[in-house]
Design brief:
2 domains, Fructose-1,6-Bisphosphatase, Chain A, domain 1, D-Maltodextrin-Binding Protein, domain 2, 7 helices, five-stranded mixed beta sheet, 35% helix, globular, alpha+beta
Length: 264
């Protein structure tokens, strides 16, 4: 029977290949085809090509397993792979290195395996239940050398009410945090997992944005909570240190309704 570590290793090998392809597109980004999906929401030839590659490799390595992708769709059943081929496409197109490739495996609604690659940096962060956080296949304990420097990230979306996000931003600043927004949910969760940020909060997201990164954050020891916005099936995510989560509950009471996903 295949172990979680073996399954993770095989998935990481797929993402290693996807990184190479994505970097080729990044180097030639001035000449690739793009289109707009919505306000400040773009999809490029890189997105579709990387997703196609990952889908083909998943079909070969994990036959008969369901796959859902941001660009090509699919079905979220009881157990499925989920791909965000280029998370942070706007950053990618503008030449910022803050974009990534995210792959997760979700079982019964709970992400249990996650990979986020940062191709420009040559880094692949990965984790599955019980593995701890790994960087390029080696243990990477979360490290915060200057804990008095309080910094976190706040995700935004063109579909989210601007005043709602602004109120959370102001509240967190008043509570003592520097608030970052880097326009890539998976990279924000990587930064939270490795200790660069105290956490990441996002009131409106998608499963393909978070499935890889939340496993990293959970295995790094952060409190991770995923819920849905009232009256919808739209996910939100809160992942952070106990201090950040305590401050956040005063500003965003909804996160109190969801138990931490640290247990299987």
């Amino acid at each position: 029977m295949e172990t979680a570590n073996e399954r993770l290793d095989r998935a990481v090998a797929i993402i290693e290949e996807a990184m190479t392809l994505a970097l080729e597109f990044f180097a030639a980004r001035g000449n690739i085809a793009t289109r707009t999906k919505g306000f400040q929401d773009f999809v490029s030839e890189a997105d579709t090509s990387v997703e196609t590659l990952v889908r083909e490799r998943l079909a070969a390595v994990f036959p008969n397993e369901t796959v859902l992708g941001e660009e090509m769709g699919g079905i979220a059943d009881d157990a499925y792979w989920i791909i965000d081929p280029i998370d942070g496409t706007a950053n990618f197109l503008r030449g910022s290195p803050l974009w990534g490739i995210s792959l997760g495996f979700v079982r019964n609604g709970r992400p249990e395996l996650g990979i986020v690659a940062m191709p420009v940096f040559g880094e692949i962060y990965s984790a599955a239940d019980g593995t701890g956080l790994l960087l390029n296949g080696k243990p990477f304990p979360r490290d915060v050398p200057f804990p008095e420097v309080q910094v976190m990230s706040l995700g935004d979306s063109a579909s989210t009410d601007a005043e709602e996000i602004a109120a959370l931003n102001v509240g967190l600043r008043h509570a003592g945090w520097v608030v970052e927004s880097i326009r890539s949910t998976s990279i924000s969760l990587v930064f939270a997992a490795r200790g660069t940020f105290d956490g990441h909060l996002q009131k409106l997201t998608t499963m393909w944005d978070i499935a890889g990164g939340v496993v990293l954050a959970r295995e790094a020891g952060l409190d991770v909570r995923i819920g849905t916005r009232e009256g919808t099936d739209i996910p939100w995510v809160a992942a952070g240190t106990p201090k950040l989560m305590a401050a956040t509950t005063e500003l965003w009471p909804e996160i109190k309704t969801v138990r931490s996903s640290s247990s299987a």
